[in-house]
Amino acid sequence: MSEDAATESGRRRPSRDERAINSKVLTWGVILVIVTGLVSWFGFAAAYGVGVGNPPSSSSSSSGNTNSGGGGPDYVYLAVNANPDRNQSTDQFTPGNFTVPAHTLLVFTITNYDNGQNVVPAQETKVNGTVHNLIYVNGSTTGISSVTTPIAHTFTILTTGFNVPLPSAGPVSPSVVTFEAYFNDTGTYTWQCMAQCDPWSMGQAGYMTGTLTVA
Ligand SMILES: [Cu+2]
Questions:
Q1: Which residues of the chain have pLDDT under 50?
Q2: I want to staple 90 with a disulfide (CB 3.0 to 4.6 A). Which of 11, 27, 79, 83 is the partner?
Q3: In whole angstroms, how far apart are CA 129 and each of 38, 66, 164, 165?
Q4: CA 23 to ligand 1 center in whole angstroms
């Protein structure tokens, strides 16, 4: 009986040579899939400016903002201080003017050191424009869509409705707000604090108002 004879199921058994060829085809197929995947990813990364790398180990970099470059989201760090360097406090976001990449998942951390409790319009107690319209306070994994505790400041872009209220700091520890956001329309947006905080700072570029540039 030849090797071409039909098996019980009616299918021909592959010869030893054919099995070797099949295994080569499989190997090259897998390699092709991997290479295609890598090329596609780098093409996407180049086209959309996806960063490469990891978040910084500390948030104390002078720029405050990090385009880490590659694979993951970009991280944005802001601090809010009430500096006692004038007769009244000087409330200030740092940095007040910054740039973020468009079409990129941004992970914001805003650390607020001001324990002031300020009057905020009802609309600006609600979160708007973040991913799922949620923020996360002091490490909580449960997002909230509005702040019902005392508020020190807000990060508000009136032209788009983007709004993040910042709970007042405690007597000792700051309040830390994290959230995710995408900004898909390039341009320069003016942000401002809608809380009635430090009257001088509220009208002062780089203090309680500034620019967020989407590039
Ligand atoms: Cu303010």
A1: 1-9, 31, 33-35, 37-64
A2: 83
A3: 33, 21, 8, 12
A4: 67
Residues with C-beta atoms within 5 A of ion ligand 1 = 153, 193, 195, 197, 208
Domain ranges of the chain: 1-48, 65-214
Distance (angstroms) between ligand 1 centre and the Cα of 206 equals 12
C-alpha span between 54 and 193 (Å, rounded): 30
Identify the DSSP state of 151.
Answer: E
- For the question of whether the overall pTM of this predicted structure is more than 0.70, the answer is no
Longest dimension (CA), the chain: 105
Superfamily for domain range 65-214:
Cupredoxins -  blue copper proteins (2.60.40.420)
How far CA 46 is from CA of 40, 56, 65, 153, 188, in Å, comes to 10, 22, 20, 37, 23
- Calpha distance 162→95 (Å, rounded): 18
Q: What is each CA distance from 19 to 16, 39, 137, in whole angstroms?
A: 5, 30, 60
The confidence score (pLDDT) of residue 54 equals 33
The predicted pLDDT at position 174 comes to 96
> What is the phi-psi region of residue 46: left when phi exceeds 0, alpha when psi lies from -120 to 50, beta otherwise?
alpha
Whole-angstrom distance, CA of residue 89 vs CA of residue 199: 10
pLDDT at 117 (0 to 100) = 95
